[in-house]
């Protein structure tokens, strides 16, 4: 970890992720990581998807006060459809109203853009708009290269997954990306005022993505730790980050985060709007909300969670639930609706919001304000009533070529998960689904990264495009740095398990490389290929700390004398040395014990021959090499 | 934690699990835990399944040197079919051959039974044998009461699960238990020389169980920490414990564990047999193995993992795998088969083993020596060839009324999990399946409790009866106390998620109680109802350490000013106060957006009325009580 000298002291973690180096691939210089294997393996480096941004590049100049390089600036300007203009003035209430000291310890960002970009009058700068006009943008090209990762290598590999109707190509072309975005099956969240992003796609036919939530709250946190958490979360694999700050200094905190983030940033604008009215939901107005959208659009937020599906008639449906309304945005809108006895202003002004979205290319993340907060409430009428409205809104946004994804639950027992996915696909026209977990039981607070990881892996398999992480602190407190890492790694493994099960053509390459390393006792390769090399090595060293043990051909479970991995190696060596393919023993497609028995007899025949050969050669498991 | 005064210093954790008290239910005095809720809740205590044994009973006298009370002794003797006899003499090699100091720091157990029990000549003392004769044993009665937990309360509750063909009753009767054991669909592992056990059942139509592995190894561990881990694992929910010790002092370590365990103990006898021949697999003989079985049978091991399915012809099938043979028992037998070019002596002597099993009522756990050790090897010919043989052996054991369960993988991607379950049910005649995970990806060493917890929850849902835990140290090192707890809690939550998804009639009671506590800000109830109250409270306190915060009506995520839970409560209060049932807003079974729209209109109508009433009453969300 390196502490960066900056006007304010914000330490972020930089430098290569252990055992890997940054590479830039193709014309668009797409960032990836390459994990070099030990020469003894005779295998090429393994390329892995990389969300860590310039921070893991030792050649990158990192200055938190300047922000990241603006990779996309040129692409945006080259399209000729944007203009710069005088930014909305920052108001005291943008940072909360808790007394005269509006800084609250958070200095304003030193490098604020004074003239943000927006679409010229009558123009639409969304990736969906370009896609539908048949234009392949540099962003789409970047995504294609990024998603292709390993696919060339894997072309031969049979995927064999069950994709539940997804259409995962054997090779991702820029044209494929364009088509997916045009159909609304994928989004590339990329505010034109956040040119620091490395483009990425969220969609069922791409790799399953994960989101990490950060954000200060009314009772804890500060900007330094939030920026650090953002960099930390992306280092371990967060594809997007949501800044869910509440309380003070929301505006300035967000500016620090966006300027230093190479991944798309999402927010829930109603949180900030609520702070502007002193936390009194019923005092919210469309005008205050709209002003907040513009404020955040100019800063560069890439997607907005908008709880426009929490409609007045649905609110009482939550009254008979075990846990009512657990979405913060949902309950704000429910309270507003009840207090005014009016339809939600988000719903009423949806088309006005869409106009803002298309002027900056902000994607909708249609919020599930009525998601179930407990197993008892899963898949109930309130939840699905809202989902139907989200479907209606999806089609309204699509009419204006605005990108949309749909947020999903929550707490759902396993047997009710698939219904969520199926309904969402049907009602929302295959717009990407973005779910929180779901948690498959309520009884394990402190372990809800796991209860939700179980649900996340399943719903990702069924077709969810992005999984919102849950940390061990869920329901209990604010995640610290360690919690963020555990949440991210848990969700990376869940997303990867989903990619494997869907039959992603290249997903298994990393599993195979790691398993081979494990089998051959290349401990360092095993650590480096894992999602969290540091923890893997630390755990190993707790039992066998000696440096020599990392190259030793045994592990702590069996000890030096006997090792099952070693014996399997002997079995393999033996089979190979006998120059006899094991094909002679291949059991034909087994349909029952009879086939097995027949096959077994054939195998026994072969074994007798082998036994003789083995005896001839002196009955040694280790035969001299090059015999 | 209390350190017990004993001849050797073995500290084990005693005393009630926080927030709960031990209760003994019914004629058989079945141990359970009751979690008392805050009086404000107005709810009865929640009864939960309890594996912690006498250790969590403050009235129990715990003396590690004496062992636990022999709950079942009387039941066993009353059947009149056993005799005691002179125990086999303990030999030096029983504790390993690594030098003259055979104690290696482990003293012999002070209270060894000199005259163990066995079936009288011609008798069979297995629970399956009694069951098939129509006898309902006290063990079956105990199991019925234990499994019934909460079912009376839940009779009204619709289960709504998807059980994949399981036959879970709304109430478990002793006769139901007998029938399941007679059919071979469930086992009650209960060696007559381990009368300290509290009987439990493993079967698809009972609660999903979990196993924790402990055991010293050639490079680490000692007896004190293994006994402590056993008690610790059962405290958090392990239904059985396997002692997988290798290296020195295996015999004495096991004695300490069994005498102090109230849960069934399983072993892999081939591990000890291997130590007896100095770790040289090819020196193993049937005679040494048989002697080891008798040795362990007399000590009271409740189930034996026997890798009798690793047959000579299958061994070469593993040669072309990415990770060969990863089962330690499987590789021992593979090496033996290759070295001798003979069929496995376990397979050849299977019926001889069965004779021993029925003399002590030891259950088979037919080992999956050829389970896949990587995603690449899942569901391959070696694995399924062995499974077919396990099916054959199951029926052979059943002919002699010996209880059987079947071990399963391993590493399996999600889309291949169900095939494992389906094949196992078909081939093994519904004998209980007992799986290790499976891990759904290989790329997360350090997090394999999670990669495997995902697979475990799914395969448990599909019908697996017992899930063998995996700790965070899997593949890397030996689990310590903390790892054991994390592994157990992870598997408890996976097993519970499976029970929920299968539609177990009472499973959701605990979820509902916890969620209600969460919704009502009964923090202490939320902690106490969770699988790990200590961790839940610790995490909460990291953000809000003040004692007052535990009763405060807010949490750290939203802060005191705004809280979504609080708003939902207001929504509910409002609906209730209006004396208007929310039924008026119930959306009929939704078949599509049209139905939703129609229903929405009806709901709007109702809302207008409510709005008027609300305005009449002064537009307050909190109305005065008892208005």
TrEMBL record, chains A, B:
GO terms for cellular component: cytosol. Gene3D superfamilies: 6.10.250.620, Radical SAM ThiC family, central domain. It holds the Pfam family ThiC_Rad_SAM. The keyword Isomerase does not apply. [4Fe-4S] cluster binds at residues 555, 558, 563. Binds 1 [4Fe-4S] cluster per subunit. The cluster is coordinated with 3 cysteines and an exchangeable S-adenosyl-L-methionine. Its EC number is 4.1.99.17. Keywords: 4Fe-4S, Iron, Iron-sulfur, Lyase, Metal-binding, S-adenosyl-L-methionine, Thiamine biosynthesis, Zinc. Pathway: Cofactor biosynthesis; thiamine diphosphate biosynthesis. Residues 597-619 have a biased composition (Basic and acidic residues). One of its GO terms (molecular function) is zinc ion binding. Residues 87-108, 589-627 are annotated as: Disordered. Coiled coil: none annotated. Substrate binds at residues 213, 242, 271, 307, 327-329, 368-371, 407, 434. Its cofactor is [4Fe-4S] cluster. GO terms for biological process: thiamine biosynthetic process; thiamine diphosphate biosynthetic process. Residues 17-83 form the ThiC-associated domain. Belongs to the ThiC family. Catalyzes the synthesis of the hydroxymethylpyrimidine phosphate (HMP-P) moiety of thiamine from aminoimidazole ribotide (AIR) in a radical S-adenosyl-L-methionine (SAM)-dependent reaction. HAMAP family: ThiC. PANTHER family: PHOSPHOMETHYLPYRIMIDINE SYNTHASE, CHLOROPLASTIC, THIAMINE BIOSYNTHESIS PROTEIN THIC. This is Phosphomethylpyrimidine synthase. The lineage of its organism: Bacteria, Pseudomonadati, Pseudomonadota, Alphaproteobacteria, Sphingomonadales. The gene is thiC.
